[in-house]
TrEMBL record:
GO molecular function, one term: ATP hydrolysis activity
Lineage: Eukaryota, Metazoa, Chordata, Craniata, Vertebrata
Protein name according to UniProt: CF transmembrane conductance regulator
Gene: Cftr
Record bears the keyword Transmembrane helix: yes
Cited SUPFAM superfamilies: ABC transporter transmembrane region, P-loop containing nucleoside triphosphate hydrolases
Length: 530
């Protein structure tokens, strides 16, 4: 891949997007190949973005009792987000200025209006320049906000991925594939789509104030008739939007439930086939799918009525704004055309941009809270590794698989420490724990030196897997000491194969090394006739 020209593009090139011209010209001449695509800028790399957000998130966790992910995101992206928001607002202001110039150009066609006729050509030039300024403001602003949304999505995607590598096995058992898919795809993709409209939460009200001031100058009290209709439409859209959110949440729950059951069926397909449960599982999944489609249809109906309210409101808003004025003062062509232009912008701000911005903020904050809850889930306890240590030592190790035992043991130790300063008799002891559960491993002592081979045998449930989980840190020791260097290779009894070819599974995303590849093939006896 070629280095991205965006990193070395000048200000003018970024303003007019001329840095995209070479690849567009190449794509016009022939089909683009992978080697023609530019390499992503270093500032957009997953390593850079995840490290930046992870550093701020760690700082947030260390400094506050109740850390908030949104504060970490704010410190990473807020200034560029504000800058592009100001550009977007200035671009939207030009939409309010345009009808003023248009009205004056229309007035210049009146033979009696000598003042406007004398400057008509300047008004036309000003209108053309206004379109150019709007383009130079809006397009870089929208591109920049989409760019920030992409960076936030990549950073949080990487943060979630790193978190999954640190989760304890107890937590991983409770997280379904459907939850992860919903977290990584359905939720995070909204940043790319919606961040460009998030600023309208404050731009739209300012735009309404500006437009109503201009309309008051033209129509006086008649201007509020059209605004009143728009407010009624906003209330109607809010009711429909609330219903749409309810149906969408129910749909998301059904999707998650369907993905969980489908995943369990696939994982246990041998049992399903052996007991002839195909029809029963198919009916369960089809029933969930029907409920999901029902919620999808209802949500689509709400979206249809919301969009209809926007498209059919244009005529009535203009009609209610102009009618009282024309009845009292008669028809003034300049004011009619200017009012129509103002009402079009006003309708867009009130019935489309502002409700969409509210919905985006509601969805985004909810999604950030979900990701924050995931990032605050329990991690496995990192063992104290010593790289100079060559063997493996366990001294009087005891461990429980039952959830909550570690917290109970800490309470026991705290109570035992307080015995010296307290005369009370209500103390917990280790013997009390036997009343509610038995340790899976108790008083284990093990010493393996480098180069030794050891086979552990025993009946099912004897604790062989638990011993390995202790070494890896997946099972936390309640008592005792575990020492090793941290450089441990583990081959699970359940194999995991990545979807793809044998070669792709061996390379596993790294650059192709022919010697290593053939060595692995030979070691695994995958040669033809081998």
């Amino acid at each position: 891949m070629q280095k991205s020209p965006l990193e070395k593009a000048s200000f003018i090139s970024k303003l007019f997007f001329s840095w995209t011209t070479p690849i567009l010209r190449k794509g016009y001449r022939h089909h683009l190949e992978l080697s023609d695509i530019y390499q992503a800028p270093s500032s957009d790399s997953a390593d850079h973005l995840s490290e930046k957000l992870e550093r701020e998130w760690d700082r947030e966790q260390a400094s506050k009792k109740k850390p908030q992910l949104i504060h970490a995101l704010r410190r990473c992206f807020v200034w560029r987000f504000v800058f592009y928001g100001v550009l977007l607002y200035l671009g939207e202001v030009t939409k309010a200025v345009q009808p003023v110039l248009l009205g004056r150009i229309i007035a210049s066609y009146d033979p009696d209006n000598t003042e406007e006729r004398s400057i008509a050509i300047y008004l036309g030039i000003g209108l053309c320049l206004l379109f150019i300024v709007r383009t130079l403001l809006l397009h870089p602003a929208i591109f920049g906000l989409h760019h920030i949304g992409m960076q936030m999505r990549i950073a949080m995607f990487s943060l979630i991925y790193k978190k999954t590598l640190k989760l304890s096995s107890r937590v991983l058992d409770k997280i379904s594939i459907g939850q992860l898919i919903s977290l990584l795809s359905n939720n995070l993709n909204k940043f790319d789509e919606g961040l460009a409209l998030a600023h309208f939460i404050w731009i739209a009200p300012l735009q309404v104030v500006l437009l109503m001031g201009l309309l008051w100058d033209l129509l006086q009290f008649s201007a509020f008739c059209g605004l009143g209709l728009l407010i009624v439409l906003v209330i109607f859209q809010a009711i429909l939007g609330k219903m749409m959110v309810k149906y969408r949440d129910k749909r998301a729950a059904k999707i998650n439930e369907r993905l969980v059951i489908t995943s369990e069926v696939i994982d246990n397909i041998y049992s399903v086939k052996a007991y002839c449960w195909e029809s029963a599982m198919e009916k369960i999944i089809e029933s969930l799918r029907e409920e999901e489609l029902k919620m999808t249809r209802r949500s689509a109906y709400m979206r249809f009525f919301t969009s209809s309210a926007f498209f059919f409101s244009g005529f009535f808003v203009v009609f209610l704004s102009v009618l009282p004025y024309t009845v009292i003062n008669g028809i003034v062509l300049r004011k009619i055309f200017t009012t129509i232009s103002f009402c079009i912008v006003l309708r867009m701000s009130v019935t489309r941009q502002f409700p969409t911005a509210v919905q985006i903020w509601y969805d985004s904050l909810g999604m950030i809270r979900k990701i924050q809850d995931f990032l605050q889930t329990q991690e496995y306890k990192v063992l104290e590794y010593n790289l100079m240590f060559t063997g493996l030592v366990m001294e009087n190790v005891t461990a429980f698989w039952e959830e909550g035992f570690q917290e109970l043991l800490e309470k026991v130790q705290l109570n035992n420490d307080d015995r010296k300063t307290s005369n009370g008799e209500n103390h917990l002891s280790f013997s009390h724990l036997c009343l509610v559960g038995n340790p899976v491993l108790k008083n284990i002592n093990l010493n393996i030196k480098k180069g030794e081979m050891l086979a552990i045998t025993g009946s099912t449930g004897a604790g062989k897997t638990s011993l390995l989980m202790l070494i890896l840190g997946e099972l936390e020791a309640s008592e005792g000491i575990i020492k090793h260097s941290g450089r441990v290779s583990f081959s699970s009894q359940i194999s995991w194969i990545m979807p793809g070819t044998i070669k792709e599974n061996i390379i596993f995303g790294v650059s192709y090394d022919e010697y290593r590849y053939k060595s692995v093939v030979k070691a695994c006896q995958l040669q033809e006739g081998g």
